[in-house]
Amino acid sequence: MNLKVIAFQIADSIELKQFKTAFTAHIHYADTDELFYLIDSYKYLYVFKYGIVCFLGYNEIEMTAFLQLIAPYCKNMFENRLSDEFDIETDSANIHFGFNKIEIPGSNHEMIRLIMLNVSQSVALDYYNQQTSLLLEETNFHTQEMERKGKIGLGGTKLKKYIGRTLNLKNRIAGNLYIFDSPEATWEDENLNKLDIGLKKIFDLQSRFRTIQEGLQIVRDNLELFKDMLQYKNSVLLEWVVIILILVEVINLLVDKFFP
Length: 260
Prior knowledge:
Elements: E1 2-14, H1 16-22, E2 27-30, E3 34-40, E4 43-48, E5 52-56, H2 60-70, E6 74-89, E7 96-98, E8 101-103, H3 109-149, H4 156-176, H5 185-188, H6 190-202, H7 205-258
Parallel strand pairs: 6-8
Antiparallel strand pairs: 1-5, 1-6, 2-3, 3-4, 4-5, 7-8
Helix pairs in contact: 3-6, 3-7, 4-7
Protein backbone atom coordinates (compact mmCIF):
# COMPACT_ATOMS: atom_id res chain seq x y z
CA MET A 1 0.00 0.00 0.00
CA ASN A 2 1.19 3.51 -0.81
CA LEU A 3 0.98 6.01 2.06
CA LYS A 4 1.95 9.66 2.27
CA VAL A 5 3.30 11.51 5.29
CA ILE A 6 2.81 15.30 5.38
CA ALA A 7 4.20 17.47 8.19
CA PHE A 8 3.46 21.16 8.80
CA GLN A 9 5.09 23.76 11.02
CA ILE A 10 1.91 25.61 11.96
CA ALA A 11 2.91 27.67 15.03
CA ASP A 12 5.66 28.55 17.49
CA SER A 13 4.25 26.03 19.95
CA ILE A 14 1.20 23.91 20.77
CA GLU A 15 -0.29 23.48 24.25
CA LEU A 16 -0.34 19.67 24.32
CA LYS A 17 -1.87 19.20 27.76
CA GLN A 18 -5.02 21.14 26.90
CA PHE A 19 -5.25 19.64 23.42
CA LYS A 20 -4.91 16.10 24.78
CA THR A 21 -7.88 16.71 27.09
CA ALA A 22 -10.03 18.03 24.24
CA PHE A 23 -9.03 15.55 21.51
CA THR A 24 -10.10 12.06 22.56
CA ALA A 25 -8.77 9.85 19.74
CA HIS A 26 -6.74 6.73 20.60
CA ILE A 27 -3.23 7.65 21.79
CA HIS A 28 -0.47 5.15 21.04
CA TYR A 29 2.32 7.24 22.61
CA ALA A 30 2.35 10.42 24.66
CA ASP A 31 4.76 12.51 26.73
CA THR A 32 5.18 16.20 27.52
CA ASP A 33 6.64 16.90 24.05
CA GLU A 34 4.55 14.83 21.63
CA LEU A 35 1.27 12.99 21.07
CA PHE A 36 1.02 10.09 18.61
CA TYR A 37 -2.51 9.00 17.67
CA LEU A 38 -3.85 5.92 15.88
CA ILE A 39 -6.93 7.36 14.20
CA ASP A 40 -7.89 4.44 11.97
CA SER A 41 -6.34 1.74 9.80
CA TYR A 42 -3.47 3.41 7.92
CA LYS A 43 -4.41 6.76 9.46
CA TYR A 44 -2.11 8.40 12.02
CA LEU A 45 -1.63 11.79 13.61
CA TYR A 46 1.48 13.16 15.33
CA VAL A 47 1.43 16.45 17.27
CA PHE A 48 4.55 18.11 18.74
CA LYS A 49 4.77 20.88 21.31
CA TYR A 50 7.13 22.90 19.10
CA GLY A 51 4.36 23.64 16.60
CA ILE A 52 4.52 20.64 14.25
CA VAL A 53 1.55 18.57 13.12
CA CYS A 54 2.20 15.44 11.03
CA PHE A 55 -0.45 13.49 9.11
CA LEU A 56 -0.57 10.06 7.50
CA GLY A 57 -3.64 8.88 5.59
CA TYR A 58 -5.43 12.26 5.73
CA ASN A 59 -6.87 13.99 2.68
CA GLU A 60 -6.75 17.76 2.11
CA ILE A 61 -10.20 18.43 3.58
CA GLU A 62 -9.46 16.40 6.73
CA MET A 63 -6.10 18.13 7.26
CA THR A 64 -7.67 21.58 6.86
CA ALA A 65 -10.42 20.69 9.33
CA PHE A 66 -7.92 19.42 11.88
CA LEU A 67 -5.71 22.50 11.59
CA GLN A 68 -8.77 24.62 12.35
CA LEU A 69 -9.57 22.36 15.31
CA ILE A 70 -6.09 22.67 16.84
CA ALA A 71 -5.73 26.43 16.20
CA PRO A 72 -7.03 27.50 19.67
CA TYR A 73 -4.21 25.50 21.31
CA CYS A 74 -1.46 27.11 19.19
CA LYS A 75 0.76 30.04 20.13
CA ASN A 76 1.54 32.42 17.27
CA MET A 77 -0.18 30.55 14.43
CA PHE A 78 1.65 30.98 11.11
CA GLU A 79 0.01 32.22 7.93
CA ASN A 80 2.73 30.70 5.73
CA ARG A 81 3.39 27.15 6.86
CA LEU A 82 6.53 25.17 6.13
CA SER A 83 5.85 21.58 5.13
CA ASP A 84 7.50 18.37 3.96
CA GLU A 85 6.18 15.18 2.36
CA PHE A 86 7.43 11.60 2.35
CA ASP A 87 6.09 8.43 0.72
CA ILE A 88 5.83 5.02 2.37
CA GLU A 89 5.39 1.70 0.57
CA THR A 90 4.25 -1.04 2.94
CA ASP A 91 4.41 -4.84 2.56
CA SER A 92 7.98 -4.81 1.24
CA ALA A 93 10.23 -7.78 2.00
CA ASN A 94 12.86 -5.55 3.57
CA ILE A 95 13.51 -1.95 4.50
CA HIS A 96 14.59 -0.08 1.39
CA PHE A 97 15.39 3.62 1.15
CA GLY A 98 14.66 5.59 -2.03
CA PHE A 99 14.46 9.23 -3.06
CA ASN A 100 11.95 10.83 -0.69
CA LYS A 101 10.46 7.39 -0.25
CA ILE A 102 10.85 4.28 1.88
CA GLU A 103 9.69 0.68 1.63
CA ILE A 104 8.97 -1.17 4.88
CA PRO A 105 7.70 -4.66 5.77
CA GLY A 106 4.10 -4.28 6.92
CA SER A 107 2.65 -1.27 8.71
CA ASN A 108 4.27 -1.58 12.12
CA HIS A 109 3.08 1.25 14.38
CA GLU A 110 6.57 1.98 15.68
CA MET A 111 8.03 2.14 12.18
CA ILE A 112 5.27 4.52 11.10
CA ARG A 113 5.86 6.65 14.18
CA LEU A 114 9.62 6.75 13.54
CA ILE A 115 9.11 7.86 9.93
CA MET A 116 6.65 10.58 10.94
CA LEU A 117 9.02 11.73 13.69
CA ASN A 118 11.90 12.18 11.25
CA VAL A 119 9.74 13.99 8.69
CA SER A 120 8.59 16.33 11.47
CA GLN A 121 12.15 16.94 12.62
CA SER A 122 13.07 17.80 9.03
CA VAL A 123 10.34 20.46 8.88
CA ALA A 124 11.45 21.83 12.25
CA LEU A 125 15.01 22.12 10.91
CA ASP A 126 13.71 24.07 7.91
CA TYR A 127 11.95 26.48 10.27
CA TYR A 128 14.92 26.94 12.60
CA ASN A 129 17.24 27.35 9.61
CA GLN A 130 14.95 30.09 8.33
CA GLN A 131 15.02 31.87 11.70
CA THR A 132 18.81 31.52 11.94
CA SER A 133 19.20 32.99 8.44
CA LEU A 134 17.17 36.04 9.49
CA LEU A 135 19.46 36.55 12.50
CA LEU A 136 22.52 36.20 10.27
CA GLU A 137 21.13 38.77 7.83
CA GLU A 138 20.57 41.21 10.69
CA THR A 139 24.08 40.52 12.00
CA ASN A 140 25.59 41.14 8.56
CA PHE A 141 23.70 44.42 8.31
CA HIS A 142 25.25 45.67 11.55
CA THR A 143 28.77 44.47 10.68
CA GLN A 144 28.54 46.22 7.29
CA GLU A 145 27.30 49.36 9.06
CA MET A 146 30.30 49.13 11.38
CA GLU A 147 32.60 48.81 8.36
CA ARG A 148 31.09 51.89 6.69
CA LYS A 149 30.59 54.18 9.69
CA GLY A 150 32.91 52.78 12.33
CA LYS A 151 29.95 52.30 14.69
CA ILE A 152 26.72 50.32 15.02
CA GLY A 153 23.20 51.61 15.49
CA LEU A 154 22.32 49.18 18.27
CA GLY A 155 21.45 50.86 21.54
CA GLY A 156 21.25 49.11 24.88
CA THR A 157 17.59 48.03 24.63
CA LYS A 158 17.83 46.98 20.97
CA LEU A 159 20.95 44.96 21.66
CA LYS A 160 19.33 43.23 24.62
CA LYS A 161 16.30 42.29 22.49
CA TYR A 162 18.64 41.02 19.77
CA ILE A 163 20.55 38.90 22.28
CA GLY A 164 17.24 37.65 23.71
CA ARG A 165 15.99 36.52 20.29
CA THR A 166 19.23 34.65 19.64
CA LEU A 167 19.28 32.89 23.02
CA ASN A 168 15.58 32.06 22.78
CA LEU A 169 16.05 30.44 19.37
CA LYS A 170 19.07 28.50 20.58
CA ASN A 171 17.17 27.23 23.64
CA ARG A 172 14.17 26.19 21.54
CA ILE A 173 16.39 24.22 19.18
CA ALA A 174 18.16 22.49 22.07
CA GLY A 175 14.86 21.67 23.78
CA ASN A 176 12.84 20.56 20.77
CA LEU A 177 15.12 18.64 18.41
CA TYR A 178 16.31 15.09 19.04
CA ILE A 179 18.65 14.87 16.05
CA PHE A 180 21.36 13.01 17.94
CA ASP A 181 18.96 10.95 20.06
CA SER A 182 16.86 7.95 19.07
CA PRO A 183 13.55 6.77 20.58
CA GLU A 184 13.86 4.02 23.17
CA ALA A 185 12.13 1.54 20.87
CA THR A 186 15.15 1.60 18.52
CA TRP A 187 17.49 0.36 21.26
CA GLU A 188 16.01 -3.13 21.34
CA ASP A 189 14.80 -3.60 17.76
CA GLU A 190 17.40 -4.01 15.00
CA ASN A 191 14.96 -3.08 12.21
CA LEU A 192 13.87 0.09 14.00
CA ASN A 193 17.49 1.03 14.61
CA LYS A 194 18.32 0.50 10.93
CA LEU A 195 15.27 2.55 9.97
CA ASP A 196 16.21 5.39 12.30
CA ILE A 197 19.80 5.58 11.03
CA GLY A 198 18.65 5.48 7.40
CA LEU A 199 16.02 8.18 7.87
CA LYS A 200 18.53 10.52 9.51
CA LYS A 201 20.77 10.07 6.47
CA ILE A 202 17.94 10.61 3.96
CA PHE A 203 16.89 13.88 5.60
CA ASP A 204 20.51 14.86 6.32
CA LEU A 205 19.36 15.84 9.81
CA GLN A 206 22.70 15.93 11.60
CA SER A 207 24.47 18.00 8.92
CA ARG A 208 21.58 20.49 8.74
CA PHE A 209 21.52 20.72 12.53
CA ARG A 210 25.26 21.49 12.65
CA THR A 211 24.79 24.19 9.98
CA ILE A 212 22.19 25.88 12.17
CA GLN A 213 24.44 25.59 15.24
CA GLU A 214 27.35 27.12 13.32
CA GLY A 215 25.15 29.98 12.13
CA LEU A 216 23.99 30.69 15.68
CA GLN A 217 27.61 30.60 16.88
CA ILE A 218 28.53 33.26 14.29
CA VAL A 219 25.64 35.42 15.52
CA ARG A 220 26.70 34.87 19.13
CA ASP A 221 30.32 35.84 18.40
CA ASN A 222 29.18 39.05 16.73
CA LEU A 223 26.84 39.80 19.62
CA GLU A 224 29.76 39.53 22.02
CA LEU A 225 31.65 42.07 19.89
CA PHE A 226 28.65 44.41 19.75
CA LYS A 227 28.19 44.12 23.51
CA ASP A 228 31.88 44.92 24.15
CA MET A 229 31.64 47.95 21.84
CA LEU A 230 28.54 49.19 23.63
CA GLN A 231 30.19 48.71 27.02
CA TYR A 232 33.27 50.62 25.80
CA LYS A 233 31.04 53.39 24.47
CA ASN A 234 29.20 53.64 27.79
CA SER A 235 32.51 53.56 29.68
CA VAL A 236 33.90 56.45 27.62
CA LEU A 237 30.67 58.38 28.12
CA LEU A 238 30.86 57.80 31.86
CA GLU A 239 34.47 59.01 31.93
CA TRP A 240 33.47 62.22 30.16
CA VAL A 241 30.63 62.74 32.63
CA VAL A 242 33.09 62.35 35.52
CA ILE A 243 35.56 64.75 33.88
CA ILE A 244 32.84 67.35 33.32
CA LEU A 245 31.66 67.04 36.93
CA ILE A 246 35.21 67.47 38.21
CA LEU A 247 35.68 70.48 35.92
CA VAL A 248 32.46 72.05 37.19
CA GLU A 249 33.62 71.49 40.79
CA VAL A 250 37.00 73.10 40.07
CA ILE A 251 35.30 76.10 38.46
CA ASN A 252 33.05 76.46 41.51
CA LEU A 253 36.08 76.42 43.81
CA LEU A 254 37.85 79.05 41.71
CA VAL A 255 34.77 81.25 41.66
CA ASP A 256 34.37 80.94 45.41
CA LYS A 257 38.04 81.76 45.92
CA PHE A 258 38.42 84.77 43.64
CA PHE A 259 34.86 86.10 43.84
CA PRO A 260 33.78 85.47 47.43
